[in-house]
Predict the structure.
Amino acid sequence: MLKTMRNIGIMAHIDAGKTTTTERILYYTGKSHRIGEVDDGEAIMDWMEQEQERGITIQSAATTIYWKDFQINIIDTPGHVDFTAEVERALRVLDGAITIFDAVRGVEPQTETVWRQAERYKVPCIGYVNKMDRVGADFYQALEDIKAKLEATPVPLQVPIGEESSFEGVIDLINMKEIRWDAQSDGERMLESPIAPERAAIAREWQDKLISELANVSDTIGDKYLAGETIDVTLLKTELRKAVLSRAILPMFAGASRRNIGVQPLIDAVLDFLPAPDEAVPTFGHHLKKDEAVLVPCDLKATPLGLVFKIQNDREAGAFCYVRMYSGSIKPGTTVFNVGKRKRERVNRILRMHSNKSEPMDSLSAGDIGVIIGMKLAQTGDTIGSEGYPVILEKMQFPEPVISVSIEPKTLSEQDKLKDILALLSREDPTFTTRDNEETGQLIISGMGELHLDVLITRILKEYNIGAKVGNPQVTYRESVSKVVEKTQQFSRIIAGKENVAALTLCVAPMERGAGNQYTCMVKTRDIPPAILGAVERGVTSALASGIVLGYPCIDVGVTLIDIQYSELTGTEFAFEACASLCFDEACRNAGPIQLEPIMMVEFSSPHEFVGDVISLVTQRGGQVLSIDSKPHEDQVKALAPMAKMFGFMPFLRSTSQGRASFTMEFARFEKLGK
């Protein structure tokens, strides 16, 4: 069962053709009876109303297909940088991925981002150069781009026959034949033929390069290659598979998905080169009782262990918890244990999803992906298993929100309803946060960018039918300290006739930018109850979130507990939590508090004639140009710019470039305001 299963994702920059390619895969595998087009708002995988209106993927959508007796679970991920959390949580649970490249633009900014995410989770990939029929398409330039920007080793298993309007098919370098697709059957029929004499030389050249690259990572191929022996197709595929699983090479394919060319060999490559669940990178968890890392085997008979990687709310059924099972199995009607929250949860139903449609499952077993209905407490990143095996799987890391707006209901009666909806959306999306502004009494919502917040606000107004007033976007700043300061604080208060006394000494110090906050306890813990030490840490953590002067969260602050004075008679958790919070505030106010602003990595694509004006626009807004990469039809510019000065940038860019330039923006780092 496990050997014939694949869990894959499709990832790329926005508009590279992820959803278009997925729609063809669904059609050719018989999952759908028509090809859904993104441009017509009819893509099956883009089921949300906003996805159909905007022509982009917002939420990662899951489906299951069957091809040549193999089960393939596919997750189609968004390409826009504002929805990077969707890609992050998909890659966390996938065993392999198809990375799609635009034949005209090569490696684009978000391609680099998703590639780094795939590297972090050691996800093996296959590459697909799409849009080979477009003006300016260049398969070989895309390969060079991949080498330079991703530092990968792209190895073509196909080379294109023609380019741009003359693109008609590919040469299969493993079986040494030409493949074309029949337009009358929407590309369903593949027409194979011997390699034409005029293309025989280029086919032999690229096959030799394929074997040469493989010989660098495979001793078996290397020995045969040096001895001049013939390498049969079976051995070639076996050694290619090993090289792909170790991420030593990136096998490359070519096609034009919109014209139904090149998709079926890509599905075959998923079976041939991407791992089954029991071949993927081993999963480790942390055993809470033993306090050690343990290997989680992909075993159907082992103790159940799964990861909740996505929550989606349904008005009728409640929370849809997307779960990847790593070991064991779960059946409907049973109880599972939420390891992190130490709570039991009921599994009412288990579903296999096809975009927004579903079918019931008898059980969810190791290696598989499904949806559990009935769990009320689960959140993204939670581990579910059994009480007797308290192992928690590695949590996902999500970037901090950098943009905020205020939102308030038009009528007082809708206030509670709005708060409930915001809580639902926060549970769905870990990069969407809400808080109350204590000074103004307003609700503040924060997200990853203007598009991210625009999508969420539209959902609140239209999907949930709430009347609300929304403020202008505001930058989410941070606070930190610039000096090392030691502070001793005493706390004494009588509450309900009981004395609450605490005294402690904290040292606050600036950390390197990007290091995060760090709390260290330097006192001898055997003399102090763990509950008291936990109260001190809670007080510090709470104070870090509340800020120093302006109320923005603190980052890159090191806090050390140097001394603590505790009495069994008067020392309470409440006293030490309050004392720690007060001590931290006082220390930070004397430690040269500074305000930090988010700096964004901005990447532009512009025709040559407008690139000077585009660079001028960026520098006027305090931007710093890092590099200019010249392509045959356009220039790609990388720059750093303050988030505060990039609001409303798109209309100016369109006006300056006659609508022909585009840009993407993602958070880079925090820097001192006005630096």
User: Anything to note?
Assistant: Confidence is low (pLDDT under 50) at residues 38-48, 50-58.
